Amino acid sequence: MGLFGAADAATAATASHAKTTPAAATARAAAPRYVVTDCGHAQVEPGTIVLACADYGLGLKGLHWTSWTPQLASASGTAWWKDCIPNCASGHILNGPVVVELYGSAAVKGHPGEYRYTRVTITYLGARPAVYVKNCSGKIVPTYPVTWNQSVN
């Protein structure tokens, strides 16, 4: 095969590729995209998610994603939270290892084909933040749940 034979083979390969590319591009464009919103910003497999946007008092960082599907996204990483001692304005930031699961879905307004996860479950593997609840006698006491569920904004 001489120089022209190689050129003819390259032309045929390019023509064949051109025939399949539009269909493949259409299939990719039609696939829905799943995101998590972090204080209103849509992200795919982010390294950090802020869950308390008003005061930056709760979030996830160092996330390593093991799954990102329409049904479930899961990662391991570190949670941070304010301890609010003596109060939330002058409290300390604490950290602990976690496993994170995102699930549920809702369409993202103004972005056809884009969906956002609506719920998060955080499983604390070490230190856990206090969650204050009212006990049977009406006293507010701290509890330290292993898991935490909330909606994702």
Topology (elements, then pairings):
Blueprint (H helix, E strand, L loop, with lengths): L2 H28 L2 E6 L2 E3 L5 E2 L7 E11 L3 E11 L10 E15 L6 E11 L6 E4 L5 E4 L3 E5 L2
Parallel strand pairs: 1-7
Antiparallel strand pairs: 1-2, 3-4, 4-5, 5-6, 6-7, 7-10, 8-9
For this entry, give a set of tags.
2 domains, 153 residues, alpha+beta, two-stranded antiparallel ribbon, 10 strands, disordered N terminus, 47% strand
What does this structure look like?
The chain is an alpha+beta fold and 153 residues long. It folds into two domains: 1-31; 32-151, no CATH class. Helix content is 18%, strand content 47%. Strands 1, 2, 3, 4, 5, 6, 7 and 10 form an eight-stranded mixed sheet that branches. Strands 8-9 form a two-stranded antiparallel ribbon.
Shape: elongated
Total domain units: 2
The tally of beta strands, per DSSP, is: 10
The proportion of residues in beta strands is over 45%
Query: Which regions contain 5 or more consecutive residues with pLDDT less than 50?
Result: 1-18
Please count the helical segments.
Answer: 1
CA radius of gyration is 24 Å
Give the helix/strand class: alpha+beta
Q: Could you estimate the helical fraction of the residues in percent?
A: 10-25%
N-to-C series of helices and strands = HEEEEEEEEEE
Mean pLDDT: 82
User: How does the major sheet shape up?
Assistant: 8 strands, mixed
Question: Alpha-carbon distance between the termini?
Answer: 62 Å
